[in-house]
Amino acid sequence: MTFGRTIHCPLCSSGAKPYHQDRRRAYYQCQHCGLVFVLPDAFLSVAEEKAVYDLHQNGPDDAGYRRFLSRMSRPLHKRLSPASRGLDFGSGPGPTLSVMFEELGYPMAIYDPFYAPDRSVLAEEYDFVTATEVVEHLRSPRVSLKQMWGCVKPGGYLGIMSKLVIDRAAFARWHYKNDDTHICFFSRDTFTWLAGEWGTVPLFVGKDVTLFQKP
């Protein structure tokens, strides 16, 4: 790989080094927070990105999709007080997690830049915020994660679901990187760094769910 310029991490702004290259994209890893990412010149256009999401057929009537999302709803449900109010950030074309929480008695708001773009919901605070299969799509992860965290009330939770980087060898054969809309890849080290910035500690639930409680 030949790289002729200094690369800065989109999460913490520290320096990054080459991590992996395939036939389509080059990937870098931050030397401070561990985030793996691609550069903006590898991003799809906004129209191309939305066209990929428009193909998604998931919705509340899909039992398999509900089982998948229960990896987030179950651990949060155990920790929430009755009638806690939540925000599903990045709800997608067929909001489902918000429906599942509403069925459990939690009033929900949703936000999605393509499908539910009412930004007024981001000016409020919530007992919990969820982002399932969202952070790997973020073009400006520092800005977007700060926005999510700012929506969490003190004592509340931010729940993030995203598959995690393990090591370079696993990354090379990882199907998750092959989705062109996936441009940021987090690890336990990255989430531990992020939690430190927020004055908390991460709670890792299973392989791909991380909870952060706001002090």
Contiguous uncertain segments of 5+ residues: none
Here the CATH topology equals Rossmann fold
CATH homologous group name: Vaccinia Virus protein VP39
The N- to C-terminal Cα distance equals 43 Å
The CATH architecture would be 3-Layer(aba) Sandwich
Largest pleated sheet: 6 strands, mixed
Give the tally of β-strands. 11
**Number of discrete domains:** 1
Mean pLDDT: 96
* Shape type: globular
Number of DSSP helical runs: 6
Category by helix and strand content: alpha/beta
Oligomer: single chain
Alpha carbon gyration radius:
17 Å
Give a description of the structure.
With 215 residues, this protein is of the alpha/beta class. It has one domain (7-213): Rossmann fold (3-Layer(aba) Sandwich). It has helices at 46-54, 63-77, 97-103, 141-150, 168-172, 188-198; strands at 7-8, 15-21, 26-30, 36-37, 86-89, 108-111, 126-132, 152-161, 184-185, 202-205, 209-213. The strands form two sheets. Strands 6-5-7-8-11-10 form a six-stranded mixed beta sheet, with helices on both faces. The chain has a five-stranded antiparallel beta sheet with strand order 1-2-3-4-9. The protein is globular. The relative contact order is 0.16. The mean pLDDT is 96.
